[in-house]
Amino acid sequence: MREASNRSNRRVVYETLRRKVLTLELPPGASLSENELAASLGVSRTPVRESLILLGEEGLVRVFPKVGSFVSRVDAARVADAQFLREAVELAAFDDIPETLDPDLLAELRANLEQQRAPGLDLEKFFELDESFHHGLLRLSGHGRAWSTVVAAKGHLDRARRLGLHETNGMGRFVDEHHTILDAVVAGDIPSARAGLRAHLRAVFDDIEKTRRRSPELFASDDGSVPVRRSVAVWE
Amino acid sequence: MREASNRSNRRVVYETLRRKVLTLELPPGASLSENELAASLGVSRTPVRESLILLGEEGLVRVFPKVGSFVSRVDAARVADAQFLREAVELAAFDDIPETLDPDLLAELRANLEQQRAPGLDLEKFFELDESFHHGLLRLSGHGRAWSTVVAAKGHLDRARRLGLHETNGMGRFVDEHHTILDAVVAGDIPSARAGLRAHLRAVFDDIEKTRRRSPELFASDDGSVPVRRSVAVWE
DNA sequence: GTGGCAGTTCTTGTATGTAAGCAGCGTCGA
DNA sequence: TCGACGCTGCTTACATACAAGAACTGCCAC
């Protein structure tokens, strides 16, 4: 028997909405009416509502009782929180990297880096590879399952990154850093690997900060205020 | 306007169920029928169902479609995951402790420690104080908001601790360690504080491991199997 | 023109009805 | 005695109806 079938309606709705929020297809502030979403997706309000509750717990959506649900704004404080958590977890994992690395996993990581170097790589594909690379690093240390927690917490960080990369287009440098880090790990030079990873994560964060200074309106602080209802109709 | 009114039925049901699961009042394997819970709590199935979904995402409950929902077993792997996450976050926070500590917060921590020394402290109260103490340490470093992520991830750890402390009754040592850690922080000796905290967290974990070796049945691995339906009726 | 008030229309929260499916038990047949 | 089969009762998943409340709209008085 399988648990909570991955093809339940709720799962599909949840994943769809989450993807659209993270990719900014549903931008911060967009209205998420249960009725409209249900109609759009061809399901009833129930699975939509359950998905919105879950996204609310993740901080990606804000639910105002009797008023409406809205995609949460990219909040600078939350971005920093996620950055801290991610750094803490990924660096701590390096302390537990075993002497001999799992060869299959290593091959997978190398293949991943190869793809990151592919010419004309599009942004979404890069993000996918980046996610998978960092997850792989965690798995090397035997803490792969901690990734899900990081993923759940870093929604705001991901959105901020997307805002940043749209402007700076600095994928190349990040790929180089990935190579440097993996090389250090393979060489057994954990201190270098730690330093490299820390610098890498900080660079990503600095990139976000740069964007924030340039376009503060994207990062409007997410207090309790309700967005005006007109800023709506982002759902096709 | 307040967000998601803290007094919504769902919030109450969720918090009630979560507390009962963490305190083992609802023991691992217990059946959680939506209908029974709704009747017991005097609400409809809707808020109960939404709460079970949230608890399912936290890993505290397993939902088997068309079969039933059950309190998840205390899974050794999940306990270890939470331990790793907690250690990573709490230790990383110490790197960001400022030169001058917030005096109000410091006073709060000292008062907390005083209460931990109170004679005849009961177990639940100790857990409360312990939680609050560790959260306070995080706040000292300005990363207080990361605590919620830790809390969400460490449900299994908490249940395992409760199983352990029922047997060993080793509160006293933990309180001493709390004092040592805070003293080191106040003295500005971050390396000592880190070492102390690490040892403290490891001691807690070792305690759990001892319990696990002694009573492995409590830690039955939580595979996909459905508990027998008879192991039920834990709800009064 | 402007402020206040009431109605309308939206929202989410909750309750309940319906559908689909698994498990267990009893029965029947060999 | 034991295995297969179908019925019964339970479960969750989903759909829908109803309730309560917030906010916008337009009218009306001034």
TrEMBL record, chains A, B:
Keywords: DNA-binding, Transcription, Transcription regulation
A Pfam family this chain is assigned to: GntR
Stored InterPro entries: GntR_C, TF_FadR/GntR_C, Tscrpt_reg_HTH_GntR, WH-like_DNA-bd_sf, WH_DNA-bd_sf
Keyword DNA-binding listed: yes
UniProt domain HTH gntR-type: residue ranges: 7-74
Identification of the protein by name: GntR family transcriptional regulator
Organism: Promicromonospora umidemergens
